[in-house]
């Protein structure tokens, strides 16, 4: 059984050490993945000087190459994003734009380097839009070569126009916890399958 690593990219707009609901849910995903012998870490993207662009390195101290190296060292990538105006955060969209560069990065047999990696998404917000955000993020990740397991998403959405954050929501709903456990089980399972039997060249 291969040893697996996961990376959660926290796409909150808030720099550390500000509390982040996306970080909380992302860490719950990491804890659930640990139950399946997956080691992991989280990177809060806004803490790094990631430049806008669609290349692997925008130069001049761009913070993306170091994050990209962590992505390439991991078997599982989890995007954790808040909802703003029914959309993924601007930080999340920037991450997806930077991942667009992977369409030009191939191995010796012509396969995208992301083909050996599995992705999932965790979404939090105080308004509706979790399904829309999940659809946008998972489709983009699949477009750039990541595999997606069944039920590879988890989310929590508070009352519309409310002010309660995930951290302050009291006992967490069974639905979110159950979704997180399923995400972890299925994502770890698929990651092991792909690691053991890589996709063939086209």
TrEMBL record:
**Limits of the NADPH-dependent FMN reductase-like domain:** 7-154
Q: Where are the transmembrane segments?
A: none
> Which Gene Ontology MF annotations are present?
oxidoreductase activity
Stated name of the protein:
Multimeric flavodoxin WrbA
Organism of origin: Micromonospora coxensis
């Amino acid at each position: 059984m291969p040893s697996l690593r996961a990376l959660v990219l926290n796409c909150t707009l808030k720099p550390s050490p500000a509390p982040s609901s996306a970080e909380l849910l992302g860490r719950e995903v990491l804890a659930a993945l640990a139950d399946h012998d997956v080691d992991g870490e989280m990177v809060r993207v806004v803490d790094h000087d990631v430049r806008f662009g669609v290349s692997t390195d925008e130069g001049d101290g761009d913070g993306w190459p170091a994050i990209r190296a962590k992505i390439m060292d991991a078997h599982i990538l989890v995007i954790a994003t808040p909802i703003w105006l029914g959309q993924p955060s601007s930080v999340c969209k920037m991450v997806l734009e930077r991942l667009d560069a992977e369409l030009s990065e191939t191995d010796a047999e012509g396969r995208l380097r992301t083909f050996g990696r599995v992705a999932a998404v965790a979404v939090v917000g105080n308004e509706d839009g979790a399904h829309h955000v999940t659809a946008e993020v998972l489709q983009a990740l699949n477009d750039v070569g990541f595999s997606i397991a069944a039920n590879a998403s988890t989310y929590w959405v508070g009352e519309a126009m409310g002010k309660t954050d995930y951290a302050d929501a009291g006992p967490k709903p069974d639905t979110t916890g159950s979704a997180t456990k399923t995400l972890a089980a299925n994502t770890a399972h698929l990651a092991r399958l792909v690691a053991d039997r890589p996709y063939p060249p086209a």
